[in-house]
Amino acid sequence: MKEFVLTHVVKNVSSMKEKESHFSDVEEHFGVGWSIAVMKEFVLTHVVENVSSLKENEPHFSDVEEHFGVGWKLKFYRRSDYRLSFYLFCEIPCNNGNWSISTNFKLKLLSATGKTLVKPATVVFGNSSKEKVDSWGFMSCLEWSILEKDYVVDDTVTLEAHVKIEKMIGIEKKLRDFSESAEEISDVVLIVDNQKFYVSKLFLAGQSSYFKALLCGKFQESEKSEITLTDINPIDFQNFLEILHGEPAINGNDKIEFRKKNQSVFTENTFDGILQLADMYDAKTVIRQCEKYLMQESDRTLKEKLKISAKYNLKYLRDKCLLKIETVEDIRSVVSGDLTKMNPLVLAALLQKCLSLH
């Protein structure tokens, strides 16, 4: 028997470019050249238990798994006509720009007896077309009776999706990883909309009075290894943590195809969510970075910046904005229709400016 082994060590995996495949050096064996190709592929696996108790038209989802900066999950349910529906979902929350992911994938039903059903598809997920595509699958995949007969063993069945990504556009890379790979240097898990963030209690407590009270105070949560945070978005929280951990913050680019290591967490699309969390959690470092971004890089109008400075008590931003007001027209441009809703300090400063111009 003719056999050989190819070995290739892939370095700097986190910096692999989205559109680039990697190949090992070619080795000749038995008169033929061989190499290893490293591509963007992954497999989702979900074991469905208690199949017999599944209700009609009640959707069930696997846990979300992140692959290449994108959340993926499986959806399945029993239709009222006793057929199986089976879908692959792609999650891109909080992305205001166009994005697309070109894929080839196979949805599979597996049986412990070795029987397999394969449903292939070629799909472009995204919102660059007229209609957003965030899921794709088969509404009538298989008769339920055949599923029970050929694929269900001990009231369980295994679902898989084998996904190959051909091309990605508009998907921002994370600057810092807070996934399970950071478990060794963390001592608490924060859960946001089913997404887990592995972080350090002491670090968060030193940066935020909210987390100091929550994680090191007398609350019940201080004794827990996993804590759920409600009413926030996981993408906003990822961006917030990146700023908190010292990733580059100041960059005025509004549209970026891929966010690389030296690019900013801040864009006009991400800024609001970051500042809201910084204010909510009383994270002074992040608030200062937000204020610096508005003062130096943001293209927002003077009126918008003054409104933000008043809402979040950003004194340096407010003072810088007021210094730029030099004419009556400037004053008119920043005054809102309802003066009662304006910040008293800003209104008083504008009145003083107005008097000095007459």
Order of helices and strands: EEEEEEEEEEEEHEEEHHEHHHHHHH
- What proportion of the residues is helical, as a percent range? 25-40%
Q: How far apart, in Å, are the first and last alpha carbons?
A: 98 Å
Tell me the name of the CATH homologous superfamily of the largest domain. Apoptosis, Tumor Necrosis Factor Receptor Associated Protein 2, Chain A
CATH topology of the largest domain: Apoptosis, Tumor Necrosis Factor Receptor Associated Protein 2, Chain A
Structural class: alpha+beta
Q: Which architecture of the largest domain per CATH? A: Sandwich
General shape: elongated
Rounded mean pLDDT is 80
Portion in beta strands? 25-35%
Which radius of gyration do the C-alpha atoms yield? Answer: 26 Å
Biggest sheet, in brief? 5 strands, antiparallel
Strand tally? 16
Weakly predicted, low-confidence segments: 11-15, 249-263
Outline of the structure:
The protein has 358 residues and is an alpha+beta fold. The protein has helices spanning 144-150, 201-207, 209-216, 234-244, 271-280, 284-296, 302-311, 315-323, 328-334, 344-356; strands at residues 22-23, 27-29, 32-34, 37-38, 41-48, 60-61, 65-67, 70-78, 83-91, 100-110, 116-126, 135-143, 157-169, 188-192, 195-199, 226-229. The protein is elongated and about 90 Å long.
